Amino acid sequence: MNTFTAFFLTMLALSLATQLWLTIRQINHISRHKNQVPKSFRDRITLVDHQKAAAYTLEKSRLSMLDIIISSFILLGWTLGGGLEWIDHSWQGFGLGNLATGVAVLVSTFFIISLLDVPFSLYSTFVIEEKYGFNKSTIQIYISDFIKQTILTIVLGVPLAFVVLWLMASSGSLWWIYVWIFWTAFTLFLMWLYPTWIAPMFNKFSPLDNIELVQRINNLLQRCGFASNGIFVMDGSKRSGHGNAYFTGLGAQKRIVFFDTLLDSLNGDEIEAVLAHELGHFKHKHVVKRMITMAATSFISLALLGWLIQQTWFYTGLGVNTPSTHMALLLFLLVIPVFGFFLQPVSSFLMRKHEFEADSYAARQTSALHLIQALVKLYTENANTLTPDPLFSAFHDSHPPAPVRIAFLSSKLNEKPTEESL
Fold first, then answer.
1. Active centre residues (catalytic)
2. With a threshold of 0.85, does the pTM exceed it?
3. How far, CA to CA in Å, does 378 sit from each of 33, 64, 236, 264, 386?
4. Which ranges of 225-311 does DSSP label H, i.e. alpha helix?
5. Mean pLDDT of the region 23-41
């Protein structure tokens, strides 16, 4: 057996075992605490709501275990099972040339991957989400979304794959630097394009028409030194009962988006507090920091691929006997999550640190109490568990666990709002 094959199988087994172990811990931890509301929430959340959140999380966790197992076997099928080799040879038979064949192999592989994910997506949406009252979608909407996503993947993915593979084949040994520059520029382009062109393909965005709320938001934005391209309401209720709010876009394209479900559940004070939290990310330049981190990570990853692409054992160790630039890229994209899984706690820690900073900023700009009230409502209405397993959370959660976050905000209750600006 190829040494790299043994290493890959070992890492895949370790990753699979760790993910299953963490999920079992999560299931057991939630099950042990489902019959009693945590002390800090007993005057805010009923036992019925707490148990609903526990049951909802348990069902999603069990589905994720099945997904993890099947995904691992599918990965083996793609690599050591010869799946990628078969697709590559099939396209080679059309005599399209190296570049066109590479694009076809990449696009068709990821299309098949998306098809294989459909059963889990359907079950999650139309069984679990439906059971707990969150699903508002229909089969017609689901199919329409899938078709739109496929078209979007082709429109954006084919040119992306073409340029990347062309750079890999024609830019010499330092091709990975040119690919990194192009990929970084493409990512920024997508961030600029998303709010005005991509998102409206799937949802309707309407200007917020609550004059009083608009005025409150504009006062907050002015106080925080934030300029946006508008405040919009998204018809999130078209697909789900979950509520959310976010910033999107770059430069002059920045906009604030509220799910209509969120506006229906929170009052003006709470909405202002949630928005102040999002502004906290802007204040602390979290988006910029994450972009820099992503750029650095992609630089290191492409440099690694630049070395691996020259190693015969990289291909043969993963079940490919015909080396090519497109197969190197495809193999790397498929297997890198296996090796990167154990770095997830680092990423999650940094993300949670950003959430604490944004919460602290919101407490100073508005009110910690109003943000606590908003979060408790969102925890309840979104059926977020109040008792996640700490170790599972450390690996998977970008936000602090509910008790930890509420305790942090409670320590800010005596802080007076300020008028600090950015």
1. 278, 359
2. yes
3. 20, 23, 15, 11, 12
4. 260-265, 268-283, 286-308
5. 95
